[in-house]
Amino acid sequence: MDYKKTNAPTNTITRDVNNLCENTGNVYETIAIIAKRSNQIAMEIKDELKHKLEEFAVNNVDNMEEVFENREQIEISKYYERLAKPVLLATQEYIEDKIYYRNPAKMK
């Protein structure tokens, strides 16, 4: 997923918790949903970054002086630093009803 195209804020903003928990009716359940989705997003971003940076890995490092700055690697790192934090992305997805969730206890 391209997280750069989301309309999530890049800075933390104050939200009314009562408005967030309208769907579930429970503040703690809402926070748990957002937290789990945030962890999923963080893992996706981490795996994607790791995969992109593997291209720049030096397999046999005989001399530390041979390691040099790679401009492309720096640009990739800066791109990921500018992304919104996973919790902000998850909160935005929750607000836009893009998260599917279910509570097995309520389904009985």
Topology:
Elements: H1 17-20, H2 27-53, H3 71-82, H4 86-95, H5 104-107
Helix pairs in contact: 2-3, 2-4
Write a compact overview of the structure shown.
Helices cover 53% and strands 0% of the residues.
| Class of secondary structure makeup | mainly alpha
Helix content: 40-55%
Order of helices and strands: HHHHH
> How much strand?
under 5%
Unreliable stretches: none
Mean pLDDT: 83
Q: Using DSSP, what is the number of strands?
A: 0
Spatial separation of the terminal alpha carbons:
34 Å
Q: What is the count of DSSP helices, taking H or I runs of 4+ residues?
A: 5
How large, in whole angstroms, is the Cα Rg?
Answer: 19 Å
Largest sheet: none
**How many separate domains?**
1
Estimate the global geometry from the Cα principal axes. elongated
